């Protein structure tokens, strides 16, 4: 039976093992892959095949799980395909600015102005401060990090944090799924414990950051690899000592009056009756854990289900590199042709030199020199192995839903010239839209809570609690070819199918409505009214615009 102090507690020990596997693929940690797939971390075996807990399944892989003799130098190389998929996901989702804005009230006029203040465009009173928090470069970087963590581990957490000595506003911080113990009710996150590890010699210190609605608690534990251990003073480590500064003056006064009231756990009230952390699942459902209680609420990694294909890609790539190593031209020559280290010392062999193989023969006296040299040249089967790797990438694209073009595969199956290539990224865009659906409500809630806490910690700067949630909009196309977009806009313009305002909006998808309005006004001022249609223009100064009236507007005799 597991100890009550065992960390992480069940059933998250199962999840942590799965996270470790996907993390190894994501980071390219081949030592961990070798350890896991050789069965070293299996909980049991069945018919000689190692398994772990019955949830993850077989751990034996033909390539990374194969044992290697200690004296054998086997060619094993890793292709960072898993890492590329995770980076692709993050870039598609958060590569461009996500717009988080409060919607205009319906009582405003068409121009977006308050009838009571017609000379000023309307803006939500918290919008400027919200932009400072959620649209800063720092927050965008954290969102990119969160996107990659979610793709690799199935989900990510975003927490509101603050430190008046470091910044004059609250900040957003991303946490990985393998550093969290969440609690859910009806699929909604109700509490979570985040942790950070610090290893000092043989001890493992863990800072636990417990989030409840309106409350955050910090405690430092000293334990070992699998044991949480007791709570120790939070200033036991220099890296965590500053959390004592979060204690309220009332708590410090009480500790002086009643020394027994002192607690090593630092508890902070946020002043907002909501969690200061949100969870963003990567994709749902999690097929491995859909019947496993709390684990069923966790998202699904982009790497789930493609572990075998990733293993085979590494196998094929390693085999190709072995062909490259063996394909170097070699010459077999008489031993007397080689350099020696001296009498009785033998000779030396350089595997990278062109002449290295020796034979105990001087050659026949009447034999020509060319007859004493024998060439060895092995084929490099780059095309065959390339086709294998491409086939595996197609299977990975099918399983993950990403476009073949994003995985470096031509979806048509035929060769094209550079001018004929028109990559299809629509599948990846659909995957991105799916992930954005899970991110939108979480980001809206995070923005609401961040702005409210900011108003309490940094009063007078624009932050406050607002009942309404802001709108979260992802750009319609995350990585559109600007030249291609310009051609489309030009075609629509020439066919009289798009207005100037819509042209500006499509050319600048990250702009808000006010920026679009300003650009339209600037274009109108710079270029003036559009030239008249030459098919109707007469140049007659007696008509207001110099054009002929339309047939249905002809004056009746």
TrEMBL record:
Lineage per the UniProt record: Bacteria, Bacillati, Actinomycetota, Actinomycetes, Micrococcales
Region named Disordered: 503-557
Low complexity composition-biased segments: 532-546
Signal peptide as annotated in the record: none
Protein name (record): Phage portal protein
Recorded superkingdom: Bacteria
Compositional bias per record (Basic and acidic residues), positions renumbered to this chain: 547-557
Composition bias type Acidic residues, residue spans: 510-524
Record InterPro entries: Portal_protein_SPP1_Gp6-like (IPR021145)
């Amino acid at each position: 039976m597991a100890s009550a102090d065992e960390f992480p507690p069940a059933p998250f020990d199962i999840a942590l093992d799965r996270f470790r596997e996907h993390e190894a693929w994501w980071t390219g940690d081949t030592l961990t892959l070798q350890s896991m797939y050789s069965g070293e971390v299996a909980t049991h075996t069945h018919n000689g095949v190692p398994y772990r807990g019955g949830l993850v399944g077989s751990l034996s892989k033909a390539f990374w799980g194969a044992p290697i003799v200690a004296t054998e130098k086997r060619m094993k190389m890793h292709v960072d395909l898993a890492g590329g998929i995770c980076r692709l996901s993050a870039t598609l989702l958060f590569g461009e600015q996500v717009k988080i804005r409060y919607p205009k009230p319906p009582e405003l006029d068409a121009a977006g102005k308050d009838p009571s203040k017609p000379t000023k465009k309307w803006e939500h009173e918290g919008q400027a401060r919200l932009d400072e928090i959620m649209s800063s470069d720092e927050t965008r970087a954290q969102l990119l990090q969160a996107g990659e963590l979610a793709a690799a581990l199935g989900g990510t957490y975003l927490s509101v944090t603050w430190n008046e000595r470091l910044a004059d506003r609250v900040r957003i911080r991303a946490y990985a799924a393998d550093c969290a113990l969440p609690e859910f009710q009806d699929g909604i996150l109700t509490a979570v414990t985040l942790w950070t590890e610090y290893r000092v010699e043989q001890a493992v210190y863990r800072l636990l950051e417990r989030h409840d609605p309106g409350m955050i608690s910090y405690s430092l534990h000293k334990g070992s690899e699998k044991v949480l251990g007791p709570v120790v003073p939070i200033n036991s480590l220099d890296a965590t000592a500053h959390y004592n500064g979060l204690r309220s003056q009332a708590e410090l006064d009480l500790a002086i009056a009643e020394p027994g009231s002192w607690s090593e756990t630092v508890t902070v009230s946020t002043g907002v009756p909501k969690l200061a952390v949100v969870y963003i699942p990567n994709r749902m459902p999690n097929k491995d854990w859909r019947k496993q209680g709390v684990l069923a609420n966790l998202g699904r990694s982009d790497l789930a289900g493609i572990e075998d294909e990733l293993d085979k890609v590494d196998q094929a790539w390693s085999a190709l590199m072995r062909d490259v190593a063996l394909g170097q031209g070699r010459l077999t020559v008489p031993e007397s042709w080689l350099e020696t280290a001296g009498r009785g010392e033998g000779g030396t062999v350089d595997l990278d030199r062109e002449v290295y193989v020796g034979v105990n023969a001087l050659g026949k006296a009447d034999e020509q020199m060319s007859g004493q040299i024998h060439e060895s040249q092995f084929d490099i089967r780059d095309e065959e192995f390339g086709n294998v790797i491409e086939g595996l990438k197609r299977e990975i694209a099918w399983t993950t839903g990403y476009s073949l073009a994003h995985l470096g595969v031509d979806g048509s199956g035929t060769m094209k010239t550079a001018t004929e290539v028109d990559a299809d990224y629509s599948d990846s865009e659909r995957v991105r839209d799916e992930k954005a659906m899970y991110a939108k409500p979480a980001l809206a809630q995070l923005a609401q809570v961040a702005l409210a806490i900011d108003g309490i910690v940094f009063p007078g700067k624009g932050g406050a609690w607002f009942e309404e949630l802001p709108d979260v909009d992802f750009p319609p196309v995350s990585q559109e070819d600007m030249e291609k977009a310009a051609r489309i806009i030009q075609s629509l313009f020439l066919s009289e199918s798009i207005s100037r305002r819509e042209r500006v909006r499509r050319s600048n998808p990250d702009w808000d409505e006010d920026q679009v309005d300003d650009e339209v006004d600037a274009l109108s001022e710079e270029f003036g009214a559009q030239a008249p249609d030459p098919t109707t223009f007469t140049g007659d100064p007696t008509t207001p615009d110099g054009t002929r009236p339309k047939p249905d507007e002809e004056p009746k005799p």
